[in-house]
Amino acid sequence: MSSAPEVVFAGTDGGAITDLAAYEAVGGLTALRRAREMTPEQIIAELDASSLRGRGGAFFPTGRKWSFVPKPDQNPRPHYLVVNADESEPGTFKDREIMLRVPFRFLEGCLIAARGIESQHVFVYIRGEYEHEWEILVSALEQLREAKLLGGVTIVLHRGAGAYICGEETALLESLEGRRGQPRTKPPFPAIAGLYASPTAVNNVESITTVTPIIEMGGAEYAKLGVEDSTGTRVFSLSGNVVRPGNYELPHGYPLRDLIHEVGGGIADGRTLKAVIPGGSSTPILTASEAEKVTLDFDSLSKAGSAIGSAAVIVLDDRCCMVQLGVRVSQFYEHESCGKCTPCRVGTRWLTHILQKIESGRGTHADLDLLLDVGDRINGTCLCPLGDSDAIAVASYVAKFREEFLQHIEEASCPFHGASSLDGIVAPTDVHEAHVGPHEIHRPLEVVA
Amino acid sequence: MSQTFYDEVQEMRARYPDPLSAVLPALQLAQDRHDGWLPEAALREVAEALDLTPAYCLSIASFYDMFHTEPVGRHSVEVCTNVSCAVSGAQQVLEALERELGIGVGETTEDGNVTLRAVECLGGCGWATVVAVDNRHHLHVAARDVPRIVKELGE
User: Cβ contacts (< 8 Å) between B28 and chain A: which residues?
Assistant: First the structure.
């Protein structure tokens, strides 16, 4: 195991700190006290010095995001801090563990961030499926309120109701305002006109939780962790075919192969590594040999043609059929498309159907071209990146494992012959279609070559 | 409509600068009080408490996966079948549940006790397979754990 310093989970000794006194005993609230003696500009300067970049997936500099929020004298409307706790990117389960194990460090970060953007109102939008995590936060918030530590700031814990798209910041704001979670046109960006058309900073749970230790140790000190352009630590969600899956806080720049083989205990069941999705299901796949070379930071993964995304590392062994992977990933985006932009609503469905046709052995070479063409017609044409995520992920499976796709077409059957680790998996879209009724719609679209 | 429901929704309204924001929590509360789904009566109660139309409330309810506009079982069993759970045996878990409950995915047992669903990523990928029973997450579930899970749901 790694001896890397913990920042987000510091002081927990592998457990959870859900009692305020216990949190203070490990140095909790010193950052908040310090922040309350700092000006908002000084807080943002510390964030800039730390080079903290957003942990939700976009990796946007947090300090810069806050600096875009106008000062109260420039815009007299109330200012809002909205925390995105709608973690739903497949492979990602870090924010959940942060809320479970260090709820006070997270809420302390909320209060510091609110001061940084001069806001008195914090909304935490937590995904509806995280009921236990919500209860933990309710309890922690109540303890802070009783101890009179909120300093006039209200924190509302708002539960979502099951929609991946609400992790997209403008869809989240729509949902929080009581509407269907569908992305908005940008600009205006949330910093100018976000929640209730007011200046709003939207930050991810891990970003906000990291604010606390940054104020505690100082931004420059924090920036010594990790590597250039990717400072600090990251909570990596490791899942799939590894011996020890789980969340691991490690410095940015950590070798992917060490995460899999040392921290994660290697490939499970004595199998061999086939591929790795390094940053959540939206990020392009890496082959086993590419995975040997990269380090877990923005630059290294970008150079390898992928992305660090939400730092969710999905490990796939040699039993995984890449066409089936494409089907299952595409079904997810098809299911979660909000329906607002036509290329995404229709295109994700087409990607699924073309992939299903190839998997069934009925695919042609023209279908493979059509698959990539449909993806190209989604890319960059929508209000948010949901459809692009599907297109980019699927295109990466074709690019990296083209031979396997061609084998399906030329042998007119799946080369795994029922032995793939994803064989027969039932997705929600399969079930929904079975219940659609007598309409033609549930018949797979026929792809005309 | 019961007075307490109306009053509780008014408390929710007060948390937000705009009362429309209370529509999700109000629908959650209404669903809890109507056997886990939203019949027309429930949509009317939410609409009245928030000065909305029932149609608006239905437009919200139909968008989000956790709201149900058709009757459901007293218990819900949801199996994540996204990639990390899928490569860790989610389909075997799902099939074991189908056998044990005697129903297919998306169906409810004849006695109205259990609805079985396949769902998208529940955010427990490192603890696969994740099965949510009444929104409580069981982690590291294997097919052999299924009889125990079903037994705990009772008749």
Answer: 128, 159, 161
